[in-house]
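hey so i finally got around to running both of the ones u sent me last week. sorry it took forever, my laptop kept dying halfway thru and i had to restart like 3 times lol. anyway pasting them below in the order u listed, first the sequence line then the structure token line for each. didnt double check formatting much so if smth looks off just lmk and ill redo it

first one:
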Amino acid sequence: MLIYYLIGVIAFIALIFGAILGYSSIKLKVEADPIVEQIDAILPQSQCGQCGYPGCKPYAQAVANGENITKCIPGGQATVVKIAELMGVDVPSMDCIEEPEPKVAFIIEDLCIGCTKCIAACPVDAIIGTNKAMHTVIADLCTGCELCVAPCPTNCIDMISIKPTAQNWNWKFDPTLIIPSVNTTDIPVQSLIDSQSPLNSQGNKNG
């Protein structure tokens, strides 16, 4: 009987402490900075560390506190422009924004010993393979962060440039391009017919 009593007391105490902790977690909850979340959503989430921070979220926090917005190498100019628009600041001069050269990691099969160190270093799981077996890079997933190069004990990983093709070409619209247009609704139909008439063209030549 005493055992049941002790169990009941312990359960009651646990219930009280649980209620206190639950209330504290709600009452003392620290709201996340919305600007940080918005900046983080713009970043490519490659977690490559090329910006000098351990991941995209820490860099987003630093940017919200005044850090340079041009440090995201994988994001390039497009990311810089989006962050500048979000924060209401001028887009930095394009001369100081280094557009990254698309690269992917390539594993030299004959040198790979299957140590799995590159797999552990890859932030986007673009490398597949097992222990003591040859590894392979999935090019479509690789962000070119180069984090897999340094851990490799046999130097079997090279970063190779991606040659532009119809599939990966950057088809950006040039906003400075002006395409003239004519509002044909303002031109009488008969005038359009006369201008296209072979007789009219011949008459113009003879005249």
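and the second one:
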Amino acid sequence: MNTNIWTAFWTSKKSDRSKEHVPTELLTHGANVVVKWVDSCETCLEDGNKPCKCGIDNEKLQLEVKNEVAEAEVHALRGNSSFLQSVMNMIGMLIGLGQLSTPYALENGGWVSAFLLVALGFTCAYTSHLLGKCLANNPKARNYTDIGYHAFGSRGQAIATAFIYLEIFMALVSYTISLHDNLNIVFLGTHLQFPWARHLSTSQVLTVFAVLVALPSLWLRDLSSISFLSTGGIIMSLMIFVTVACTAIFGGVAANHAIPALQLQNIPHISGLYMFSFAGHIVFPDIHRAMKDPSKFTKVSIVSFTFVTLLYTSLGFMGAKLFGPGVNSQITLSMPRSLVFTKIALWATVLTPMTKYALEFAPFAIQLEHRFLYSMKSQTKMIVRGTIGSILLLIILVLALSVPYFEYVLGLTGSLVGVAIIIIFPAVFYIKIFWNQISKPILVLHVVLIALGSVLGVSGTISSLKLLVENFKGIHH
């Protein structure tokens, strides 16, 4: 009888969980409570002089078990990332290719466009705060797509998923193009020949090797483990900033180029570069869920975006003043090749994409595991996840070597999908979820953000596509 009661209760508990995987710790915890119930019931049955009240105790105990199991579940799902690790993960996700292209964007957009860069930094910090509020409103939400589902059901989830996967794909293509471009300069004059790579240049062969070296990082799953890669990426980015500054101070390059005030015709394209610089929102829900104290997520966003915005702005002005109209879309490719600072910057730029693959792939890996691999053993999960990630990265490698137009792919990524993920979707989701609580000024603010984001996205996509097609045709002609 006791066993049947517990079986019925646990069966209903499993159905309530909608087939979610139940951690072993919860099963153990629940079993301990039931042992106590069985002991008390046996004592009741042994005492023949008093009427047994097991049925009443059982009802109370079911409620107690439900409460205690729920508390144990919350504890089991609680993250283990500290405030500092969370800041490192967020900065590591944000910083990277964006800083390489900021001098180029600032030079081509004019110094007035720096206000757009700073405004986007503040806006994206605010929209990351909105994501945190949406996550706090629904404890079951685990990632960006869950927020879409919470707001608009399966349609919202499908649209968010499509944009996320497209951004991951295009961002990884951009990182791999950057890896190839900088390896080409690092090993300029080097010739490598392999029988299996007769039709590949030396830089392409080296890019293949570099991607193969980075593949094992895709097998990492826990964000607290990946944080060391984020730290490495931050160090590489700071090294690039320092080497550019040293070039200005000790490298014999005069920072005397005048930056144009405003080149309005280039704003649509460079807005895509700026937006890509702040594209990291797809990982933010995972960072939020991995935190020991998710209530500090907004502070993590403020610290991270403030640091990154200051870095981008200062490096943008520094690079534009140093190299003027001749500045490359990647600042490291404009630096004098004879300087030791340049060699350090180039190697830092080569290593940066290799630290990014795991963080960019993390949302896809977590979604894959949550939806399809939850019933597998941990070792099997790792094998399946790592294999799929490796195959995708090799496909991305082939595409990156076929379309080597860094600034246009980067701008298209920011305008086509980045603006939706970092500005439009968070504002729309927040309005839908908090419709009954939102004030009119906040509603107007969000509508303005959605409208401006849409304008920047459409104009930037058209501009970047046009430039990409023109350059593609020009190369083949």
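quick thing i noticed on the 2nd:
The radius of gyration is 26 Å.
anyway thats it, ttyl
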